[in-house]
Every structure is written in C-alpha cells, then in structure tokens.
Structure prediction request, 182 residues.
Amino acid sequence: MMTQTLNALHTRLSGSKESLPKEASTGKQAGRQDTGIRHVALHATNPAASAEFYRDVLGMEIVGGSTPDHPLGASVFLSSRPDEEAHEIVLFAKPEFAHIAFKVSSLAEFRSFHARVVEMNIPIKFVFNHRVSFSFYFDDPDGNMVEIYWPTGDLSQRPPYAEPLDLSQPDEALLEKVTATI
Prediction:
C-alpha cells in the first residue's frame, strides 16, 4: 500500500509514468517488522540543553550520556521506551558522530549486512560491542554515517559504551560477550 502511494505521488510530482525503482517496490522488508530505522544521532551544540527539549516537549527519558572530556565528547542518549530500546535519539556535540541507525533482527542478518558492505568495497569506520548491541558504521555516498546494529538484549549498560568487536570470531565467541555481561 505504501509503495503504491509513493508511486502515485512520484508520478503526480514528476508528471511521468515512471515508478520507484523495482527494488523499492518489491517489498524486500516484508515480514521483518522489527527491523529498519531505530534511532537517529544528531549534532547538538549543547546536548544537555537539547536533551531537556526532547524530555520536556516529547516526554523522552534521558538514559545516558558523556561529558566533554569523553572520547565521544559531550553526548546525551534518550528513549521513550527504555525497557525496550536502549535509545532512540542521541545528541552529540561532535558533528562527526551524527548518524542514522538501522536495526536488524538477528546476528546472522547483522553478519550478512556487514559482508555486503565489505563486498561493495565500502570502508567500515567502526565495529563495536556496545553491550546493548553489536554495531558497525560506514558512510553513505554523501558522507552521512550509517549504523547497522543487532540488539543483544542486554539493556543493563547505560550508553555510551564501545569496545572493538572482531567479526572474524565465530558466533559462539561473540555471543559469549553478551552472556558475560547479562
């Protein structure tokens, strides 16, 4: 339904009978209800002040953050559902950490996305165990950072947390990192 609406809108706006690219209309995500965009990390000149806005206006809960002397710089992590999502908005004083994050449904799917990005010769910037998730980061063609992550189920660690993750290890070794922290 959404694809039909987008195709109709595209046709109306462009004045042509072209439709969205075939990949966009095939429903590749059908059946994956727990995947897709899950959080956004924004640049904020004053993360603490901006966090108050999201808390007071949107009712979000501040669930973590860092001070200016942290390697990430000043940051604030917010969630409207902290028992379900570790964070939904992140505010970074350092603009280079702004990104959009896509959640995948399994460790196998996480590995598959990683392999696809590597196969396409897209440089991987970081691969981390955040405890709440395994993540890897890369830039899109316009230099916007993208994160792909698989939630581990461990919501006990307040963000930010990042230790390097070696994806050459077998699943069992990676999963031990999760069970060791739960």
Remarks:
- The longest strand covers residues 36-43.
- The CA atoms of residues 127 and 136 lie 4 Å apart.
- The helical segments are 2-14, 22-25, 47-58, 107-119, 171-179.
- The beta strands are 36-43, 61-66, 75-79, 89-92, 99-103, 124-129, 133-139, 145-151, 163-164.
